[in-house]
Amino acid sequence: MSTTAIVLERDYHHDRPRGWQRWLFSTNHKDIGTLYLTFAMTMLFLGGASAMVVRAELFMPGLQLVDPDLYNNLITNHALIMIFGAVMPAAAGMANWMIPLMIGAPDMALPRMNNLSFWLLPAAALLMFLSFVVPFFPGGGSQINTGWTLYPPLSLQVGMSMDFLVFSLHLLGISSVLASINIIVTLLNMRAPGMTLMKMPIFCWAWLVTAFLLILVIPVLAGGITMLLFDRHFGTTFFTAAGGGDPVLFQHLFWFFGHPEVYILLLPAFGILAHVIPTFARKPLFGYKVIVGAMLGIAAIGMLVWAHHQYTIGMSMAAVTYFMVGTILISIPVGLIVFSYIATMWRGAMTFETPMLFAVGILIMFTFGGLSGIMLAVVPADMQYHDSMFVVAHFHYVLLPGALFGLYAGVFYWLPKWTGHMYDERLGKLFFWFNVIGFNVTFFPQHFLGLAGMPRRIADYNAMFAEFNMISSIGAFVFGLSHLLLLYIVVKTVRGGVAATDQVWEGAKGLEWQQPSPPPFHSWTKAPEIA
Amino acid sequence: MMRISGTPVAALAAATLSASPAAQAAFGLNLPPPASVGAQQIFDIHMMTLSVATVLMIVVLAAVVYSVVTFRKDRGYQADQHFHTSRLASWSWIAVPILVLGVDFAIAGSAKRVLASLWNVPHGDMLDVKITGHQWWWEFDYLADGVKVESRFTPQDQAGNLYLRDVDNRLVLPTHTPIRFLHTSADVLHAFWVPELGFKKDAIPGYVTETWTTIEKEGVFRGQCAELCGTWHARMPLVVEAVSPERFDAWLAERKAHITALAAQDSADRQWARDELVTRGQPEYNTYCAACHQPGGEGMPPAFPALKGSAIVKGPFEQHLRRVLHGVPGTAMQSFAHLSDAQIAAIVTYERAVFNEMDESIQPAMVRAAR
Amino acid sequence: MSRAQDGYYIPGPSHWPLVATTSVFGILAGIALGINDIPAGFYFVAAGLLMFAVLLFGWFGDVARESLSGYYNPRVDRSFRQGMFWFIASEVFFFLAFFGSLYYLRNISLDWLGGAGYLGTTNQLLYPDYDAQWPTSGPGEVGGKFTPMEAMGIPALNTLILLSSGATITWAHWGLKLERRSQLIWGLVATVALGLTFVVLQAWEYREAYQHLNLTLRSGVYGSTFYMLTGFHGFHVTMGAIMLLSILARSLRGHFTPKNHFAFEAVAWYWHFVDVVWLGLFVFVYWL
Ligand code: HEA
Ligand code: HEA
Ligand code: CUA
Ligand SMILES: [Cu+2]
After folding, report:
1. How large is the average pLDDT for residues B55-72?
2. B183 and B208 in contact (C-beta within 8 Å)?
């Protein structure tokens, strides 16, 4: 035991840095988790603010606020900030906070690297910010008007901003790969004795699958944008027909990453639901094994269907048929998960605190988005939907309920554990209703816009699209403002409030609830016994 | 509208809309009525999946709502702690997939049938129309007859409430004739999309993608470029005018005559007066250059440099000609070598006259020399 | 039961990650400026690289010290191994992106340009007199005519060199396990030497290609894929060689024990990975 003693000594002595050092040099999973979550919140507001400008521009026909290049520059940043800046870091932050608590580990397996994975993010954000502002300086070149998909040849025309963006994406990629490595190692190597893989909480499983996906697909994106960089500056012709290249090659590389990416956004949030629903239904999760299997299935199929984003590039009938069938089959694992969650509520004794409200809302709204996904997957019909506002409606219906709202549920569910204070339930419920109503008013009308023939990524449109765009914009402003309420609730809870018990929720089960709220600086210095 | 009113979604949609009945007239809630057999098939499968999705949505919604109202603690409901080990649990993992798989195959199966009938271009003689996307206009090339049509959006003041849905020259097509479209692009990705024709296809620089259709009814069908292609992506409307084969042939003949006339006028080796060049130059400039460099020549820096008082209009005209003939690689400024000597001469003279009060006249002969 | 838990070493606060981000940011921002010919970029890159060098010594210095002071129990060691394993996995997929592109350009889009396959009309309409044969620089003959690289000759030789370097490092590993110090040292020296020879030969091959074969980065897709794949591989070999040097230095200081030598194994795995990638290159880029 003597060596043990020494190590713990050392921990306790210089592991309690005060002031700014605590955050900058941290090797503590909770502090790093907090950093991630704060960063994500900031980015949510930046990405959201750009969306607000986008909606304001689309409020009426004509060009009022921004010129077309700035408009598309904004949607590019909106998408990248939301996906890489808000959703992924928020999920990573919760992984950092909760995984060691859930599996009875003292910390993440590689604490120093953990800190690096976070601090790469601000650097990436700075590069992305530069890519946004550079064009406004003399000699700064043209703006990034390509959308987040960065398709060449358009992305070959863009000025130097594109290079900053490419490098920003490289950093974001490195950051998530390092974080994924850390999470996988922690889950495989740091579980308390007796916690077998099949006893592991679903949130951990969700993150295990997500981390695998990240490690497999992020490098492919890195490769693709590297080729883009070389085509731009060093005379290679990967994406230029004259040299024997093909612009479509980039699309394959991008979507080989891009489609799994959407499940990378989805799975952690769905993992959270697997904790929220049993807690507030006061009965065990229905179909644990099935859910684990389904998540693996989603990852597996998800890796093989990327080209459903490219039905219109001119693929052979065999190819489109393959991608169509594969894509539609994803409804099986996802359907299983939705089914298991409903079955978990079935015959439970439910109460509806804010996290549970979100869970219920998600089941309905995500299913809706998923079903419009199935419509998109049908090749002949997608000949009409593709690149129309219908697609925009689809992916916000899956991205927000499927990812963002799941994370909101997680925030309200774990905030008492993190801070030791209960949040204001009344305000929480208010936020939920604001949010859900605003969301649906914003994105439901966009289905009609798409079907009526409005393409996406246009800043100016014909009067025939006016009414629904106006409704959508009004919804968006309500939705946007509702987030100010979120910010207020979170800050208020951090500053103080009714003290939370260790278990916090009546129905909460699992190791994380055996630790005090807030947990001590070092969680589980002695491994818990698993029943 | 008729077809859709069957489904609950439509009801919902109508409800949303009834707020502004005026809209209903202007405004599709659904894909516009198809104008070709293929489009009809696509419309039908769209309605099919839409209804399947609606039904599934109602099933899920019902299950969720029922449990939310029934299984509540405040109703003193006791949670069933063994539900997750019930028979349902031990069979759901196989039962649910089988049900879902059934629906999936139903959808995929009928989709495959539609594909089989319209994905591949049938053999046999067809009217070949090559459609080339440019930043930011369309070029329609009736290959067999050597007729080229350039189609650009009409500015707001002329287009009125058809703004961004109207063009100067339409894509005229015959009805009841199998047509093969050959899509390609001169610069970046664009996409051909006219909802009434039922399909969308990307225009990929350096590659040619194919689609085909047989238009069933006469009329004017409007669409837009559907792939982000840069600044004026929103300003690439597509307007198809479907006419009877007879009127189509008449139209073709008229175009041919027009082209030969112009060619004759331009090729005639004569000195042009400066005013003649400038007057001819203005419309040409507005057609070919104004989209980027703006009618006033102030451009849209940094993307599109200004011409007004720029080095190019001040500098020697040979340089100016070279720029117009060869373009600037890697930028939106492509080569305009495909224009006639007279056109280029007129444009350059106009630019130098208007943006630099320069008193010189660039003759077509000079352009030919510079080529 | 709870013993396994304690003694898992959790390092104290460290400023190295922050240094790392700053240096990487400097390098990338610098390159971004540089390739858009803004001279200031150069200084960013220089500063970044300098910082990075300091970082490597600092960070890995810390790790070495901790390892020597016996803070790392077997479980920590396992974390490191698994971490390295998954890192290499991600590297594999990075290379797969380029191999995949090679396959796509060579077997799919080339058919279309040549008039075969689903988009065959491309050829009739745009390149009527282009006969698509790999190696190609495309219908536009971008970069002019060129001679492809011969598989036999330097590449074959390089294959031998890398394979034998794989053998020598394994030999060194045995030396370490059996506490035969000289075998460990000389095994490593040989591996480093072979690695560097490989890099030199590769550089020489590039010179040949540029001067005599007119095969450059600009020679259409053949040039693009050839230089991207071999270039990134060469870069990894160089990295590997540097890592080898560092563990050589540590072996000389006697840092490694038969049981505890994660750093050595990590580098060895990396080296084998680089080795395997080369075999792929030799077959798909040079040979077929
Ligand atoms: C979290 C993100 C997320 C998720 C989960 C999904 C889920 C799905 N998506 Fe979506 N998608 C996006 C994010 C997401 N998508 C984004 C961002 C884009 C646009 C990118 C861009 O172009 O910018 C996009 C675009 C997109 C396209 C391309 C459209 C186009 O550009 O033309 C397609 C086409 O197939 C598609 C399909 C699907 C399908 C089939 C699913 C399935 O996984 C859905 C499965 C779920 C269900 C089916 C509902 C629940 C199941 C049941 C209730 C069981 C019963 C169901 C049946 C029997 C069918 N998506
Ligand atoms: C997780 C990802 C994510 C999230 C969360 C969102 C959130 C939102 N998005 Fe989304 N969006 C994408 C991913 C996402 N989006 C992607 C991938 C695209 C495709 C881009 C492309 O085509 O390349 C896209 C594109 C896109 C478009 C289409 C643009 C076009 O094609 O022309 C629109 C338009 O309505 C839109 C709107 C919104 C809105 C209103 C929100 C709202 O949820 C935002 C919520 C609002 C806030 C968080 C604001 C916070 C509060 C303040 C800033 C205070 C001030 C408030 C007011 C002044 C009212 N987005
Ligand atoms: Cu052309 Cu968009
Ligand atoms: Cu997808």
Report:
1. 95
2. yes
Residue A200's CB is within 10 A of a number of other CB atoms, namely 19
The number of beta carbons lying within 10 Å of the beta carbon of residue B136 is 22
Q: Is the pLDDT of residue A217 over 70?
A: yes
Neighbours of B282 (CB within 10 A): 17
Give the number of residues written for chain A: 531
Residue A153 preceded by cis peptide, ω within 30? yes
β-bridge mates for residue B138, sequence order:
B133, B151
- What average pLDDT is seen over chain B? 85
Pair B313, A153: CB distance under 8 Å: no
Contacts of C139 in chain B (CB under 8 A): 206
Phi then psi dihedrals of residue C240, to 5 deg = -55, -45
Amino acid at C199: V
Q: Please name the residue whose Cα sits nearest to atom 1 of ligand 3.
A: B190
Token pair recorded at residue B218: 């006469």
Cβ contact C101–A119 (<8 Å): no
Give per-residue burial for C170-190: e unless 16+ CB within 10 Å, then b: ebbbebbeeeeeebbbebbbb
Identify the residue among B4, B27, B98 best suited for mutation to test binding to A, counting A beta carbons within 10 A and taking the highest.
B27
| C122 to B210: CB separation less than 8 angstroms, yes or no | no
The size of chain C, in residues, is: 288
The question of ipTM being above 0.85 is answered as yes
Nearest to A281 by CA among B232, B247, B68: B68
Q: How far is it, in rounded angstroms, from Cα A268 to Cα A408?
A: 12
Determine which residue's CA is closest to atom 52 belonging to ligand 1. Answer: A335
Q: CA triplet A373, A377, A381: central angle to 5 degrees?
A: 105
User: How high is the mean pLDDT of chain A?
Assistant: 92
Closest of B25, B22, B1, B26 to residue B11, by C-alpha: B1
Partners of chain C (3+ Cβ pairs below 8 A): A, B
- Give C113→chain A minimum CA distance, Å: 8
At A124, phi and psi to the nearest 5?
-60, -45
pLDDT digits (tens, 9 = 90+) for B31-54: 988 999 899 999 999 999 999 999
Please write the tens of the pLDDT for every residue from B272-306: 888 888 888 887 887 788 878 887 788 877 677 88
CA distance A505 to chain B (A): 14
| Chain mean position to CA B320 | 32
Report the interhelical angle of C40-68 vs C16-35 (nearest 10°): 150
- How many residues are given for chain B? 371
> Pick from A3, A109, A237: which is nearest to C7 by CB?
A3
Q: Is the pLDDT score of C2 beyond 50?
A: no
**Residue B237 pairs with which residues in a beta bridge?**
B224
Give me the phi and psi of C286, to 5 degrees please.
-90, -45
The alpha carbon torsion through C50, C55, C61, C63 (nearest 10 deg) reads: -160
pTM of the predicted model as reported, rounded to 2 decimal places: 0.92
Q: What are the strands, taking DSSP E only, across A358-504? A: none
Rounded CA-CA distance C139/C266 in Å is: 45
Alpha-carbon distance of A44 to C163, in angstroms, equals: 50
Whether the Cβ atoms of residue C187 and residue C169 lie closer than 8 Å to each other: yes
CA distance C179 to C183: 9
Residue A284 neighbours by CB distance under 10 Å: 17
Q: Are A531 and C1 in contact (CB under 8 A)?
A: no
